[in-house]
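Question: does this match?
>
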Amino acid sequence: MRSVRARAALGATLVVAVALTGAGLAVLLVLRANLTDRAGLEAEVAAREVAGQLALDRPYDELDMGDEDAHPVQVTDEDGRLVAVSTDLEAISGTGTERVTPVPAAASGDDDDDDGDDDRNEPARREVSSDEPDFANGTATVDGETADYRFASVEATTSAGLTLTVHAGAPLAAEQEAVSTVRGAMLTGLPVLLLVVAGVTWLVTRRALRPVEGIRRELAAITASEDLGRRVPEPGSRDEIARLARTTNETLTVLEASVGRQRRFVADASHELRSPIASLRTQLEVGAAHPELLDLPGAVADTVRLQDLAADLLLLARLDAGERPGRAAVDLGALVREEVSQRTGDRVPVRVYVPDAESLEVRGSRGQLARVIGNLLDNAERHAERSVAIAVSAERDAVLVDVTDDGAGVPEAERERIFERFVRLDDARSRDDGGAGLGLAIARDVAARHGGTLTVGAAPEGGARFRLRLPRSA
């Protein structure tokens, strides 16, 4: 069953069916037990009435057995012989004996004459047993009609010391009729109720899932059209479906922005690659036709620029793919000294401030962190007038690297935009002097993947100050 509505309706119907079936069986059992106990009480009352008469030595043939059609009665002696029975009783089961014809009095009293002299001085003992009677279910045929009865057995002792047992029955027809009626009503009403539950669950689930179907159709349309500017409808409710729609739209917004950045990245990368490739091709074609006119240093510079740009694009691709930096211990002070010492031919000298005694270790990739420092120094060199400085310091849980210059600085409104890819604030600057606009973007991405930050502010000298903050190694 692939439909959520069908599964919900089936599940609700099964749960209700099990619950109602269990409740119905409990009701039937309780009802049957109560009615059976009521019939047993009625049979006990009838048996005790007859037992009271026997305790008063009333002769068997003069016993008042009440409504004999409703309460069949048997009286048996200590040996289980039937000594009295209600009229019109034709057959019986479930009592002490199935006989319905009493034993003649002569046959039952001959053995008692010899004991009269021994007991004549003892007081007469007459009583009806106060013990709980015995109950049993059976059948009886009275005046040609057979029915089920609940029988109660009560003992009575005569003045002669003879213990007799009275078996009286009460009909179970009312119990059977009530149970049958309730059972029939349940069997009739249960399927109807289950159909109602299934139908209501189907309709409610269909109504609840209608917005989900709208979301699915819109997503299918977005997939078919590849138009990430479209959004799924958001229901006015505040339930889970509304939150799903809002989350879906937020995901589409992020996806649209990501795809837009990717397209701009590809376009900008193609544009940046086209210029040095075209320049290099031109120089090679001129050199092939006129070797004496070949600008070999220019060709080498274009090749180096292509190599650097390809390396930047490859690093960005790895970062976008989620590449995680290493966890090696890196001394930022030593790394800064090493990077500055390897720079030759800088237009402006770089001043280095690194404390000697303090530990400046962080965890990460030495190569990527060296790339960040190199990019920050390259950016400062392009904008500085007379000085560039780099300082490394430590806080309680972080290591700071500050790169400052005395250039024009970065306007406050542009301090976040400069970290976007292929962004150059000075559009008039030539590509050869200004770079491709990837250095700061790479630096911030690497800092973020090392658990740090890269921000820009105003330097005391009036230029820009770039601050790299990385978590300090424990």
